[in-house]
Amino acid sequence: MKKKMVILLLTLGILGTAMGCGEKKDKTEDKEGTKTEQSSQEDFKLTNKDGKVVAVDVDNIENYITLGEYKNLQVTEAPKAAVTDEEVENSIHYTLMTGYDQVEVTEDRAVQQDDTVNIDFTGYMDGEEFDGGSAQGEDLRIGSGSMIEGFEDGLIGHKKGEEVTLDLTFPTDYSVEEMQGKAAQFKIKINSISQVPELTDEWAAANTDYKTAEEFRTAQKDMMQKSIDLEYEGQVKSDLFAMVVEATEFKEYPEALLEQGKKDVRNRMDQMYQAQFQITLDEYIKQQEISDEEVEKVLTESAQTYLQQNLIVQAIFNAEGIELSEEDYTAEEAKFAELNGFPDAETMKMYYGDLNVLKDSVLWNKACDVIMGTATVTEQEPEADTEGTQE
């Protein structure tokens, strides 16, 4: 397959996590300023004509698939990780550094990594000041990488009140073309130095919902472990569901749903290209000279993949006698929000944006809960460290 089609396929491959993410909007602006409707929102219907929430609304689902075995499955996974004390301390340091006000340094010490310095600076090229190269009262975190190479490191070791001169070179891939690879001199004055706050009982009580540093540390560790646990559970569910897909026979696809699926995939790809690359899907296809046949093949295969998931989910619901009312779905949606670390379902909806994608995810998770209910999950034995045992 040609490289340009591989890029198109890779885009489709990440749609599962990328499509619909971001703020919920009814319309998007394309490059020319025209508005394209997000039909996924306007066409969204939670329930079918019978008032039920279904993954696919078809009669005689057995005409389309023969559901593979989904009970008593066995899967082997890598051991679930446990958060280490070092990881907790690193996370706390990053949280204190980026999420809270820094504390001004009053003792006579030099700039260190992760400090925030307030500086005045002026940049020169060929002895002349250049546009955009100067600032007054600028806060800069050392190690942020927000300045060109050598600027931040060049301040380490210097103290408040010092004036520093740095001879640097702009990178060859710098965003401003006329500055690429050019030598520049920066004259910098350090006005103040601030540091990451120290985690103490007093600081925790004053700045967080916790009374002591240990409570804050424990909460941080619990949050990190929960994230690992959720990731592990998600991997197990994905692996088990993949086994069901492999064991299922797909006879044909409901024509209307397949055509709608192709439209949805195309719309999501178009939104993604505009958001990330500032180009429409049609413009990309034209630029890369991708044929209509190639595009049709990719869209069809992708729509079939999404349909396979939804057909299996609905077949499991049918086999288990699971019928979801709107109220039932709302409860499942709330569970799914908590499972994924959202404070509530409404926040999750804003993140997903595409309500059809969210609905598919909620129902998929419900089906996976059924599969996991009878599954046996075995963790791999850690490999013995044989290094140094061989002569």
Automatic annotation (TrEMBL):
It is found in: Cytoplasm. Residues 114-174 form the PPIase FKBP-type domain. GO terms for molecular function: peptidyl-prolyl cis-trans isomerase activity. It comes from the Bacteria. InterPro entries: PPIase_dom_sf, PPIase_FKBP_dom, Trig_fac, Trigger_fac_C, Trigger_fac_C_sf, Trigger_fact/SurA_dom_sf. Involved in protein export. Acts as a chaperone by maintaining the newly synthesized protein in an open conformation. Functions as a peptidyl-prolyl cis-trans isomerase. This is peptidylprolyl isomerase. The lineage of its organism: Bacteria, Bacillati, Bacillota, Clostridia, Lachnospirales.
